[in-house]
Amino acid sequence: MGNAILVYAPYGIKFTMLDIDDFDRRILGELQRDATLTTQDLADRVGLSPSPCWRRVRRMQETGMIRAQVVLLDPRALGLDAMAHIHVSLLDHTEATIARFDDFVQRSDQVLECASITGSDDYVLKVVAQGPEDLERFLMRDLLALGVVRSSTTHFVLRQTKATTALPLR
């Protein structure tokens, strides 16, 4: 098993990065495909006995490499038939404006992802809605009503050709 290395990132954020081996990669790959595997099934798939397999998983959880185990839902099965990427430019970049926008993003269930980006826009949001009218309500009554958005550009997703949460394990 690898050693933990403490890494400091910008803005005071710190995280632990592990030196992982092939067994760890196989464990992570299997868990990315199906996090409901029992320790025994996981151990069988990666070629370890259950105890060492469990210890490896536990170590990766404790260091934050494995953040959570979740259920992935089908948006369409839940009536969320519209998805869009919304590019957002803020009025200014004061601490108060950024905090207000970040708070809104954290509270909004319709926002699946938010990333601060380079270029002419400040953020890109991935948003789901029941349909175009629901998306318009989100834009007009929620996002633009914040009073901190200079402009937004919405790109409807017509069809997804790939959607995954699995990270490459090299």
Walkthrough of the structure:
The chain has 170 residues and is α+β, with helices and mostly antiparallel strands. The protein folds into 2 domains: 4-62, Winged helix-like DNA-binding domain superfamily/Winged helix DNA-binding domain (Arc Repressor Mutant, subunit A, Orthogonal Bundle), CATH 1.10.10.10; 76-156, Alpha-Beta Plaits (2-Layer Sandwich). The protein has helices at residues 22-33, 39-46, 50-62, 95-107, 132-143; strands at 4-8, 14-18, 82-90, 111-116, 123-129, 149-156. The strands form 2 sheets. The protein has a 4-stranded antiparallel sheet with strand order 4-5-3-6. A hairpin with a 6-residue loop joins strand 4 (111-116) and strand 5 (123-129). The chain starts with a strand and ends in a 14-residue tail after the last strand. The model is unreliable at 1-9 (pLDDT under 50).
